[in-house]
Each structure stands twice: as structure tokens, then as C-alpha cells.
Amino acid sequence: MNVPFADLSRGVAAARPELDEAIGAVLDGGRFILGDHVARFERAFADWCGAHDAVGVASGTDAIALALRAVGVGSGDEVIVPANTCVPTVAGVEAAGAVPVLADVDPATWTLDPASAARVVTARTRAVVAVHLYGLCADVDGLRELGLKVVEDAAQAHGAELRGRRAGTLGDAAAFSFYPTKNLGAFGDGGAVVTNDPDTAALVRSLRVYGESARYESVRRGWNSRLDELQAAILLVRLGHLDASLARRRELVRRYEAIPLPRQPVPEGFGHAYHLYVVRSADREALRRRLADAGVETLVHYPRAVHQHPAYAALGHAGLGESERLAAEVVSLPLYAELTDAEADAVAAAFA
Ligand SMILES: *Cc1c(COP(=O)(O)O)cnc(C)c1O
Predict the structure, then answer these.
(1) Which of 138, 143, 131 is nearest to 270 (CA)?
(2) For position 352, what pLDDT does the model report?
(3) Domains along the chain?
């Protein structure tokens, strides 16, 4: 059996009539930027997260940059990020004018280790980006003790929970991505900043349209970063299916439990959103070949720690060993709501 790593067409087909109607309403309405659909989606997504406000922006990377700026990070400030993340986390920090500083992840959770973060704090450190990697919340409570602003990178964590609270409500602000493959995906780029602080939300609303306070009155320097009406209408439809889709992911994960390899541990009190199902193997290439021979497509998230990319080599330092080990060993298995039971069983059986 061939099991594709992802197949976005299945989710589209399942909701096609609803999507056609939503897209048609935008076309008929004749308003394409910052209209009623964006406002409705922002309200619905904030409510779904249990947060005060959500502000639609152009991408998850922009959401990181705008969230950082809105919590007071600016030019020359240092921002701590885990070395075990994808490049957009770091690109978002630099787009805010700040300097990314890498810290290592905890071998027990694979997410940012507060003890490692504490070791790289300097007088210039203003914030830390808590990346909820693969859909597991970082230890935000531990990171809070550093006394820094905490911005969540929740791009992979729609629906993840920490002690009963959802991602998006754990730090000072949170960045979500609606890239098509994420737990909540649009049909193009999109993102949102979610926050419980009204002032932070108001700042992001201003920064995303040239720093305006009123039309054609820029009171601060912003830029253009907006979620568009078509994506918002699509996201409203998909948000209606998100709880069921997350429940289906959890159900599928149970079929992977017998796989005899280490997986990302889920500590007590954490609710994993299972954006990605990742296992660890000392001989990754052999494992991927074996799975490919059985028809199972796999990917690697991520094959390099941040400082192992040529562009970010200068950010490297001793003490990022766990991030480097993970980058050498992780393998992601197919996991999406439309995966069939038979396909999930075929993935698990390929390990036997
Ligand atoms: C996808 C992703 C981003 C970037 O989101 P875009 O919408 O693609 O800009 C940032 N951080 C993490 C952890 C992601 O998975």
C-alpha cells in the first residue's frame, strides 16, 4: 500500500461544497482585504483558542515578527530561540530587527530547555520564543521564570494544551501559521497573532497596515502584512472541522503506539496537537529506505539544527548537542485526519 506523507486534496474534497459557497460569497461581496470575513475569522479563532484577540497577518513568519515587535522587542535586542526549530522562527526574529540567540532543547521533551535558555541570557535579552515543536507545548511556565517576554511559536500547535490552557494563551503573544499543511491550513499563506493583551493586539493591528492609527495616518513604522478575505473565508470553514480533525489525529496516533522506536514524550499536563508524529532512529537513512520500500513516505523535520544551515552558522556555539542529535535522528511519519485506518496500520506494520 502506498501511504503519501500528506494529501491535501482529501480534506478539500470532503468540505468542497462548503468551501465553494464560502469562496463564492467573497467573490460576490467584492471586498478582498480586511473585510468582514477576516473580522469574523479573527473572533472565531480567538474564541477557539480561549484568547482575548486574534489578528490575521500574511504568514506565520510575519506573525512571529509582529508579535515580537508588539511586545516591545526592537532593534538590537536579543531573543532566545531553540536550535531545534525550522528557519522561519529565526527569520521572524530577524525581521523584528532583533538578534536570535540559540539555546538547546530538553532531551525529555525535544522543546526549548529553560536551563539552557538561562545560560545564554545577557543584559540585552528581551524575549524568548517558545516553539511548540510538532504540536507539543514548550515548557512556558519554566521559560516565564527567566523574566523575559514570551512569544509562542504556535505554528504547529493549533489545539495544543498546557495544564488545561490552549496554545495562544500561554505567553505574552503567540504566532500561528495557516500554511496549507498545518493543523489549520488555508489555500495559500496566512497567519495570526493571538494574545490576551488588548494593547498588544491593537499594536499588531496597526503594524500590519503601515503603522496606521487611522486611514493614511501612520503613527509608527509598520509594513504590509494582512490575511486576505479569501483565506479568511476558507479558514472559517476549516475551523468548523478542526476539533474533529484533531480528534482523528489523536485516534490515529494510537495505531502508532506499538512502533518500537523512541517518540516525542508527552509530559503529564500537556496535550499534544499532533501536527507531526516523529520518531527517532540512530540509523535514519536505513529506516527511511525500509519504509519507502513498504510504500510509506516519510520526511525529516528538520535535517539541520538552525546553526547547521550555512546562513546561520555564526549562531552556533557549544551546548547545542541535543538539537544536533535530534537533527541527525528524527523521522516524521504520515499523520493527517484523512489518513485511513488501513493506511495507519500499514505504516505501523512497516516497522515489524
Ligand atoms: C510553519 C512554521 C513557521 C512559519 O510559518 P509560515 O506561515 O510558513 O511563515 C514558523 N515556525 C514553525 C515552527 C513552523 O512550523
Answers:
(1) 138
(2) 84
(3) 8-103+110-239 (3.40.640.10), 242-349 (3.90.1150.10)
